[in-house]
Amino acid sequence: MAESSDMDQLLAAFRKFAVHGDMKATGKELNGKNWAKLCKDCKIVDGKSVTGTDVDIVFSKVKQKTSRIITYEEFRRALEDLAPKRFKGQSKDEALQSIYQLVEGQEPTNAGVTKVSKTAAVDRLTDTTRYTGSHKERFDESGKGRGREGREELVENTGYVGAYKNAGTYDAKTKEK
C-alpha cells in the first residue's frame, strides 16, 4: 500500500515538471529541458557522481529514436539508470528507492526570478500624481490608467469640425423651416 502512494507522488512530481514553462503541455510527457530541471531541483545532479551531461545521456538513451520527449514509463527507466550512479554504496533496489524519495512530492522551483524593486527612485518614477503634460492625460484622478482613451486621440466621425459649438443642431434647423 505504501508503495502505491509513493508512485502516486512520483507521478505527481512528473506531471508538475512536465507542465512547467509550457502552457500547452498536457503533463503526460517530459521534454529534455524539464527533465534536466527535475534532476537539478530534486538534487539528483550532485556535480560529482551525476552531472548534467549524465542526465542528458540517460534522457537520450531512454527516449524513442525520433522523439524529443519521454513518457512516465521512460521517466522511471531513466531514474533506474541514474540510481546506481547517484547512490554507489547501495544495492540496486535501495538506490532506486532513494532516488524515488528525492523526486517524490517535489515541484519546480523558481530560483532567480526577478523581484519587484522597492526603491525610492522607482516609487518616484511610478507615482502618477507627479506626471505632467500629455502623460498626465493617460491616468484618471485615482491613478488608474485610462487605457486606449489615454493613449490615442479618438476621432469622432460626426461630420463637424472640432470645437464647433452648434454640433448636432443641423437637423433641428432644417425642421424649423
Count of separate structural domains? 2
Helix fraction by DSSP (H/I, runs of at least 4):
40-55%
Order of helices and strands: HEHHEHHHHHH
Q: Quick one: overall form?
A: elongated
Describe the sheet with the most strands. 2 strands, antiparallel
Report the total helices. Answer: 9
* Unreliable spans: none
State the CATH class of the largest domain: Mainly Alpha
Annotated CATH homologous superfamily of the largest domain? EF-hand
Q: What class do helices, strands and sheet pairing give?
A: mainly alpha
Total strand count, please? Answer: 2
Strand content: under 5%
> Order of strands across the widest beta sheet?
1-2
Examine the coordinates and then state which fold CATH places here, giving the name of the CATH topology of the largest domain.
Recoverin, domain 1
Q: What is the CA–CA distance across the termini?
A: 95 Å
Mean pLDDT: 83
- Taking Cα atoms only, what radius of gyration do you get, to the nearest Å? 31 Å
